[in-house]
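Hi team,

Below is the intake form for Rho termination factor N-terminal domain-containing protein from Nostoc favosum CHAB5714. Please confirm the fields before the structure is written into the shared record.

FORM ID: S-0412
PROTEIN: Rho termination factor N-terminal domain-containing protein
ORGANISM: Nostoc favosum CHAB5714
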Amino acid sequence: MKLSNSFIAVKKISSPVLCSQFSEDKLRQTAELILKIEGIINPLILRRTSAQSYEVVDGHFEYYAAAIAKEIDPQKGEYIGAFVLDPDNEEVLYKQIKLMRKREFGDNDVKEKLESLATQITELAESVKKIENILSTQKPKPGNQKKTQKEKSEKSEYDAMTVPQLKEKAKQQKIMGYSKMNKSELIAAIANNLKS
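The structure came back. Fields below:
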């Protein structure tokens, strides 16, 4: 017989597919089911990579569930059922995988992740709208606008003044060190003095 089911130590198996491609919840649920019946109804298909190691060809989800089962209960989850490819049956098994296991690994999980991502994007967009609404309702108070316009008109008034005129104004406001200030410093000092 060319094909027989073997029990392989989970620690000797690796997968080229990332675990993150699958739902953590579904992996954990499957792991618990594997432990309940102490086995798996859908054996892995493995390729030997060395005398003591194997790589998953088909059954990546099942492999990760078995790895979690081993973490939960190292004794019950130590071995997993698998078919091991050898040069005599490799081509035929690949054909069976394509015909009988018509699914791509993780199709349902990818769909769920995309749906979850779409939900998160929708929620984020709604949060942004709420923030925009809050910001739009918080208009500046009329008094603050008048003050800003008043400051602008005073500043333009000071720009039209000469340095001696600004120094005289600074002297009247009792601004310290006005005699050593240039025009822009005088304007800033006078405007700041009026604010306080």
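SUMMARY LINE: Residues 12 and 53 are 5 Å apart (CA to CA).

Thanks, M.
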